[in-house]
Amino acid sequence: MLRYVTRRVLLMIPTLFILYTLLFVLMRVVPGDIVDLYLEGGTVRSGAELEAQKLALKQELGIDKSLPEQYGIAVGKLLTGDLGQSMTTRKPVTDEIKRRGPITLELALLASSIAVIVAIPAGVISASRQRTALDQVVRVWSIITLSVPNFWVGTMVVLLPALWWGYGAPPVYRSPFEDFAGNMQQVLPAAIVLGLAFGGTTTRFVRSSLLEVLRQDYIRTAWSKGLSEAKVMQRHALKNALIPVVTIIGLQLGALFGGAVVTESIFNIPGLGTLTLNAIRTRNYTQLQANMLLFGTVVAMMSLLVDISYAWLDPRIRYS
After folding, report:
1. pTM of the full predicted structure?
2. I need a labelling partner for 182 at 20 to 30 A (CA). Which of 40, 230, 295, 307 fits?
C-alpha cells in the first residue's frame, strides 16, 4: 500500500506540471492582457505616451519579456515554492488563497454532506422498491436535479424570497466562528443548491449499483437464511454497492472545491470560485495559475483517496 501511494503521489508531480504549463501558455496566447484593461478608458492622448505607459506597466508586472523567458522565471519560482504575486494587489497570491480557501472548503463540505445524506437513502429506497410509485418519484426527482442548471436554481433561490417576502441573505460573508447563524444564512442556501444537484447524480449511481449487487448469488443466499431486509442491505449489499458511488462522490468533492464559480458569485460568497472568476476578468495570470494548480492538486488527491478507499470497501482489493 505504501509503495502504491508513493508512486501515485510522484505521478502527480508531472501531471500538475503539465497542467501548469498548458495554463501558462493558453492564458498568454489569448489576445489582450492586464495592461490593456488597466489603460482602458484612460486619459492618455498621444500614441507615444500610451505605448510608454504600456511598456512601464509590463516591466512592472514582469510580462515585457518573451514567453519562454516568462515561463522560465515562473517555473524557477515555482520550484522554490513561490507562486508569484498578484498582478492586481501586488501581494503574494497565497495570501488570497489562504483567506478564501476555508470559505470554499466550507461550501464544498456542506454541499457534499447534503448530497450524501440525500442520495444514499434515496438510492437505497429506489432500488429496494424497484418499479413502484416511490421508485418513480425518486427517479423523476434525480432527473430534474440533473436537468435544471445550477445557476438558474441559485438565481431563483436568491430572487424569489426577495420578491415575495423581502428577505435577503447577509451581503457580507461572516465566519461561522464569529456569527454561525449569519454564516448559515449565506452559505447554506448555496450548499443546498449544489448538494441537491450532485445528489441527483449520486442517487442514480447508488440505485444502479445496488440493483446490480442485489442480483448476485450471495444476496440470494442471505435472503434464504431469513435475514431481514435491513440486515441484507447494511451487511451485504450496500457496502459492495458503494465502490462506484465513492468514486463519483470523491470526484464531485474535488469539482465542488474548484468549480463553484457561478454559485459563489450568485450568493456573493467570497471563496476561491469568485477569486478565480475575478482573475479571469482582470487577466490576473499569476493568481489564476495558482488557483488552478490548487484545484488540480485537490482533484488528484481526492482521486488517490478514492482509490485507497476501495481496499476498505472490498477486502479482496489489494495494492502492490
Report:
1. 0.80
2. 295
